[in-house]
Amino acid sequence: MRLDEVTITKAIAERYFDKLMNNLELDVAIVGGGPSGLVAGYFLAKAGHRVALYERKLSVGGGMWGGGMLFNEIVVQEDAKRLLDELDVRALPYKEAGYYTADSVEAVSTITSKAVKAGLVVFNCISVEDIVAKDDRISGLVINWTAVSMANLHVDPLSIRSRYVIDATGHDTEVVAMVAKKAPGRLLTPSKNIEGEKFMNPEEAERLTLENTKEVFPGLYVAGMACNATFGGPRMGPIFGGMLLSGEKVACMILKRLSE
């Protein structure tokens, strides 16, 4: 068999544009490919909904890749261990009861694989530069290549439609920040704007990550560290149970809405 360079190019271009065209109208769009976004995508896609995830970097996984200070191990607490079991990530009990460790590379790669095989479509190297809103409700996203924004090129973006959007962009709260800028005083937070994250406190942060996983603007939910950055909770460091549980919770909340 002779390999033809043009055929290779055609195969990549045609298959990519098939994927793009098939995901212009979604049930849920997830912004940010960290652990909470991937877990949310897994449960939503597993339930049979059309879900796409947009990650501005080349790789998904967020801060989970690096474990703690590039020691590529992560910690999860007892409550979240069942999610690693469901996602086929091996977790070892630590000598202190209630703590489990997992290899961060195995965790990211396995969760990503499970989510994609469940039906989640991942678009990497794509940034969300604006939102589409109709009748005071988010109804889609405005997307562009990350390279375009990095090079500061004047290139118009494209848009996708989605019934619900999840901001899983972590500390930056990228989608929530757009809403706060263009619709000030409209967020469903105590101050009606972004509260900002507080000092590290793992115990409080893990609890509040779950508590703060909710709708922050009509059609827009927050998951993972974006929850505490939006609603004013502390950061938690390299423990990832709250991130996983937040992804599951936001998926369940949206699944309920989609079924109504």
Structure description:
With 260 residues, the chain is an alpha/beta fold. It has a single domain (25-259), classed as FAD/NAD(P)-binding domain. Helices cover 40% and strands 24% of the residues. It contains nine helices and eleven strands. Strands 1, 2, 6, 7, 8, 9, 10 and 11 form an eight-stranded mixed sheet that branches. It has a three-stranded antiparallel sheet with strand order 3-5-4. The mean pLDDT is 97.
Summarize the entry for a quick read.
This protein is an alpha/beta fold and 260 residues long.
* Major β-sheet annotation: 8 strands, mixed
Specify the CATH class.
Answer: Alpha Beta
- What's the average pLDDT? 97
Structural class: alpha/beta
What string gives the helices and strands in order? Answer: HEHEEHEEHEEEHEHHEEHH
Measured by DSSP, the beta-strand proportion falls in 15-25%
CATH architecture: 3-Layer(bba) Sandwich
Which stretches of 5+ consecutive residues score pLDDT under 50?
A: none
The dominant shape is globular
What proportion of the residues is helical, as a percent range? 25-40%
The CATH superfamily is known as: FAD/NAD(P)-binding domain
CATH topology: FAD/NAD(P)-binding domain
Write the layout of secondary structure elements.
Elements: H1 5-21, E1 25-31, H2 35-46, E2 51-55, E3 73-77, H3 78-86, E4 92-93, E5 99-103, H4 104-118, E6 121-124, E7 126-134, E8 137-145, H5 146-150, E9 158-167, H6 174-182, H7 202-211, E10 215-217, E11 220-222, H8 225-231, H9 241-259
Parallel strand pairs: 1-2, 1-9, 2-6, 9-11
Antiparallel strand pairs: 3-5, 4-5, 7-8, 8-9, 10-11
Helix pairs in contact: 2-4, 2-9, 3-9, 7-9
